[in-house]
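Support reply, case 0932

Customer input (verbatim):
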Amino acid sequence: MATPAGANRSHELPAGSAIKLGPHQLWLRDSGPSALPVLVCLHGFPSSGADFGRVWPLLAPHFRLLALDWLGLGQSDKPHPHDYRIADQADLIDTLLKQLHITSCALLAHDYGDTVTQELLARQQSAGRPYHIRAVVLLNGGLFPEAHRARLVQRLLCRPLIGPILAQLISASSYARSMRAIFGPATPPDTAFLNESWAALHPRAARRVLPSLLGYLAERRLHRTRWLAALTDASIPVRFIVGMADPISGAHMAARYEALIPRADIVRLDRIGHYPQWEAPEAVVSAALPILRPAA
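Our regenerated output:
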């Protein structure tokens, strides 16, 4: 019998608290001694920093961990109408690290968070940055638009006339079906994962911003050259950990990464889907730690 992802594993995710970044209130999870190296966890669409709940206790002995719910997602503010842009989400990370007086960090990113990471890496290639990203681990995400296979519901939500209506018609059951379809065959999401992630989307205010947030799909095409160069020209360690059974950005994305990135560093997780940090937390941490920990 298939074991639901996360079954029989407790997770110790801090509740978090609100932090003012510019004009908005964002939700931040921040745990660990300030003396430890900083690891910033960047979550995907359409969820929250809670996605890192299974890897958090495994990473906690090694890092001060930060996870910010993106503007428009999780427990952060959801302004509407609003033009949600990747550059603005990257600005939030810049502001957060400045506000916390952090000058060096590593990044663990997933999905939408991968795209924000590409923008942050592109910025690092310019001089005068207030902090240094020392290493990056990317989990399943649409790094290259030509290889990204958006789900039908995502494509429909992007349409100006259909999207706002469809967003309000999403139900708990349809959401659960969509999520199960992108997990690995032996690691389906458990009820706790589905309930927790749906709770963040259930309020009308959360669903009405989904079409605007999905503008990142068009941004990936618009900024492809910049965000590809962020990876090809990176001067720091970057590792791509891929759940190969992911229909959105799995084996086909790994193949494209290998074709485009010189000396591509890829860890392939067979039979794991779109959420490797939830489906295979031990494997993810084992593969990520050698990259994320500062050199002795």
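We compared this against your earlier run and they match. Two observations from our side: The CA atoms of residues 36 and 63 lie 5 Å apart. The mean pLDDT is 95. Please reopen the case if you see a mismatch on your end.
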